[in-house]
Backbone:
């Protein structure tokens, strides 16, 4: 029997799809297995920072952590809450579904790794697949509000703690601009934002050179990065789902029985 060209290509495509789907599944299992040990890793990293720098750094790092999480909280309440209210989406209904991707992102620290749960949440919200299958992977790649907040806060901290002075308005503007751009370029994987932070510092004229105070302060931030990453990734993922829900509702790409209606 002669197999048509279309049929042949479809078979090859399906096989390739199944292979990559299988590999993705295996990766997810490996990552979630490793992530169970994340809290121990975070504790050890923080111990190392304290062992090297003494207890005096605790205050500074605590301030950075509180500033980041305060920024994340304000952003969720004011921006996401505001958007949901504008688009008349019930906040309780939305967060009932958004809770699982939020927690998954918090634990895995990866927007990309969280995609399967974000997809499931979008499906449960009754959003059409043609919208979320495009917007969620796009969001997991370029929409990083939490990362922008983190990079802004950390850049402020690094300049102020090593230069012993406040920031000029020009420097503040540059930090906001570069943190926003760097967040767009940050990959949705654990710790990527911390690497991009080094680029933000170079961009504002404070490159992190070896054996300088700045390098020491940056290393301190790296010590608590896992904790900061948990919060920013949860925010990044919630932002992707919020935008998807708002756009889908506005353009009518929701199922007849959707809870968003
Ligand atoms: N871990 C973050 C994410 O996956 C990226 C970052 O490190 O800021 O969204």
Residues:
């Amino acid at each position: 029997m002669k197999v048509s060209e279309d049929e042949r290509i479809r078979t090859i495509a399906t096989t390739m799809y199944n292979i990559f789907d299988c590999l993705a599944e295996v990766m997810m299992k490996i990552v979630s297995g490793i992530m169970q040990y994340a809290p121990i890793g975070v504790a050890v990293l923080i111990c190392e920072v304290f062992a090297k720098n003494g207890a005096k750094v605790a205050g500074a790092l605590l301030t950075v952590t509180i500033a980041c999480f305060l920024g994340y909280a304000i952003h969720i309440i004011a921006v996401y809450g505001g958007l949901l209210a504008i688009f008349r989406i019930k906040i309780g209904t939305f967060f009932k579904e958004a809770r699982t991707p939020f927690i998954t992102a918090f634990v895995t620290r990866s927007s990309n790794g969280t995609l399967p749960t974000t997809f499931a949440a979008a499906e449960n919200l009754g959003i059409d697949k043609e919208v979320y299958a495009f917007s969620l992977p796009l969001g997991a790649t370029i929409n990083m509000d939490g990362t922008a907040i983190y990079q802004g806060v950390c850049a402020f901290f690094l300049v102020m703690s090593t230069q012993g002075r406040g920031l000029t308005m020009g420097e503040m503007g540059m930090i906001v601009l570069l943190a926003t751009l760097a967040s767009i370029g940050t990959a949705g994987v654990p710790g990527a934002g911390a690497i991009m932070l080094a680029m933000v510092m170079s961009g504002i004229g404070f490159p992190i050179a070896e054996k300088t105070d700045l390098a020491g302060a940056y290393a301190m931030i790296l010590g608590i990065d896992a904790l900061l990453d948990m919060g920013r990734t949860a925010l990044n993922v919630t932002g992707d789902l919020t935008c998807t829900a708002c756009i889908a509702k506005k353009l009518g790409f929701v199922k007849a029985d959707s809870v968003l209606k």
